[in-house]
Amino acid sequence: MVSLMQGRLPINQDVLLMQKGMLVRKVRSKSWKKLRYFRLQDDGMTVWHARQAGGKAKPSFSISDVETVREGHESELLRSLAEEFPLEQGFTIVFHGRRSNLDLVANSVEEAQIWMQGLQHLVDFVTSMDQKERLDQWLSDWFQRGDKNQDGRMSFPEVQRLLHLMNVEMDQEYALQLFQAADTSQSGTLEGEEFVEFYKALTKRPEVQEVFENFSADGQKLTLLEFVDFLREEQKEGERASDLALELIDRYEPSDSGGPIRAVGTAWSPGGAQSRQVNKSLHFHPQELRRKILVKGKKLQTLEEDLEEEEEEEVLESQLEGEQEAKPELEAQFESEPQELSPRSKDKKKDKVVMCPPFCTPICCQIMVQAPSSKPESLLFPKQKSKPIMCPSLSALVVYLKAVSFHSFTHSREHYRFYETSSFSETKAKSLIKEAGNAFVQHNAWQLSRVYPSGLRTDSSNYNPQELWNAGCQMVAMNVQTAGLEMDICDGLFRQNGGCGYVLKPDFLRDIQSSFHPERPISPFKAQTLLIQVISGQQLPKEDMTKERSIVDPLVRVEIFGVRPDTTRQETSYVENNGFNPYWGQTLCFRVLVPELALLRFVVNDYNWKTRHDFIGQYTLPWTCMQQGYRHIHLLSKDGTSLHPASIFVHICIREGLEGDES
């Protein structure tokens, strides 16, 4: 199986030494520090570990799981052990998603550098992989897991074990037939390309073949015109169908003739027909950024504010040029002018807040004001320690948004400005939505609102942000460390623009005269009907990988989150004992009043008649970002990381109005 990646792996001295293995110390806490033998496998893509060299090894992580590698001083845990282990010998492996970091301490600085440089070298290679290389790596990972004795060959008993690991319940006689057909060397084992042929036999897609034959005149190939018709009529690609057809042929057609797409081409492979739900780029006007956007975890800064900062810097430069000449006058001014006292200065400690000298006006926005000094330069570069006191007027200058208390919508309209923001607890915000939903929408059309989780959520649980977004609230705080439905919804909304943190609100949430009420939505909003045919699934993972003999019984649930009348869910029946290529072929119908606010969540669960269904994977996206036609939905784990190549194959159709039916 190593041959799949040979010639493409970026082998260097560090990688070769990692493949020999090293004894390092795994650190979980100040009291848990144990030696483990880590070794990069021959495939160059997986790392295994054992209690000691030559001991029974088990998989630790795949290179594709790693986001980056950090030095020891960047880890809070390793810094706390600096007296016991030199920081230069420590390093941290950071994984994608919410998986915990792995802190390791090598026996020497040289060994630490070998692992840090080697891992980062491989991570960079994985990041630059194309579609075929990712599939090869995925196959290599499965081969390594199925090859129990690690001899580089897979016997039929090992293949049977691998089928269970891959969620495949298959008749033994049929499995043996596929095995013998792939064993072209007649060795009784599968190696390299033989295993690839066995995998191809497992992954034949009759439902894709049926779609292909429906648009192909001879059932063997698609001409360019046939392919363009398919993209225009079925995939609803419109005018860009011709250019897209040429682009897809150039990217995925394996035939050297470069002509028509064939039924076996990777344009319809599980990872090939990429669904493009999130490829909408948005541009925002500075005024829109100021008060008409949904915000995720970032401060607002408009173009106007950037220009103001540049002007302040120019003023600062010109003022500093004349600083030396102005010193005597400044000293005289300080002696003659009385010191202003803040309200806080009247307490027993008699702390004073001083006015800033003219020459440091732009700088004072970034410093804490100190006690009076006879020399103005000592205000900026003090030698003595003193208790800092923040001047309220200065504090108001260093924030982009000024916090103000909320009394009522009428009070805010009469007394507050657009750059001021009010904070609400989730309980208060939800109460306002029910009592005065339309007034809240109008309020959020001209002023920013910030909503935060209730203080009773001591377990760091989350609330559903959709209800607050429906009222136009711009900043809805979440406990991002807690994975689950609520964070799936939050990530889903901001996925449409690459997760950069800003999403333009619908126009009826930006109109200060809006008549929209989130609890009672009415016309003129355009209702739509959604028909989703859930066709099949591919390579669905197990919920518990330690149970080799268990096979999942998958079902698909489609959930819609939006205004209250639109929030609903439907699910398919379950497929018994097949997580590898289950087939459903069922159509679900949804009618939505306000599609601009709706989000769709595709969830795959393992059916369990005794208890609640076990979660397998999900994908969430805004209604307005859905692409019609045949699409693959690539699943994500609980913590938001990719479960590649796990996916479900669906057909999506959107109709205007509420007249749609399931036919």
From TrEMBL:
Residues of the EF-hand domain: 134-169, 170-205
Membrane topology: Peripheral membrane protein
Renumbered residue ranges of the record's region Disordered: 304-349
E.C. designation(s): 3.1.4.11
Keywords: Calcium, Cytoplasm, Endoplasmic reticulum, Hydrolase, Lipid degradation, Lipid metabolism, Membrane, Metal-binding, Nucleus, Repeat, Transducer
Entry's localization field: Cytoplasm; Endoplasmic reticulum; Membrane; Nucleus
Plastid in keyword set: no
Ranges where the PI-PLC Y-box domain occurs: 394-510
Biological process per Gene Ontology, one example term: intracellular signal transduction
A Pfam family that the UniProt record links to this protein: PH
Obligatory cofactor(s): Ca(2+)
Main subcellular location: cytoplasm
SMART domains, sorted: C2, EFh, PH, PLCYc
GO MF annotation, one: phosphatidylinositol-4,5-bisphosphate phospholipase C activity
Start and end residues of each C2 domain: 510-637
Gene Ontology CC annotation, any one: endoplasmic reticulum
Every PH domain range: 16-124
Protein role: Hydrolyzes the phosphatidylinositol 4,5-bisphosphate (PIP2) to generate 2 second messenger molecules diacylglycerol (DAG) and inositol 1,4,5-trisphosphate (IP3). DAG mediates the activation of protein kinase C (PKC), while IP3 releases Ca(2+) from intracellular stores. Required for acrosome reaction in sperm during fertilization, probably by acting as an important enzyme for intracellular Ca(2+) mobilization in the zona pellucida-induced acrosome reaction. May play a role in cell growth. Modulates the liver regeneration in cooperation with nuclear PKC.
Subunit structure: Interacts with GRIP1. Interacts (via GBA motif) with guanine nucleotide-binding protein G(i) alpha subunit GNAI3 (inactive GDP-bound form); low-affinity interaction.
This protein's name: Phosphoinositide phospholipase C
Organism expressing this protein natively: Puma concolor
Lineage: Eukaryota, Metazoa, Chordata, Craniata, Vertebrata
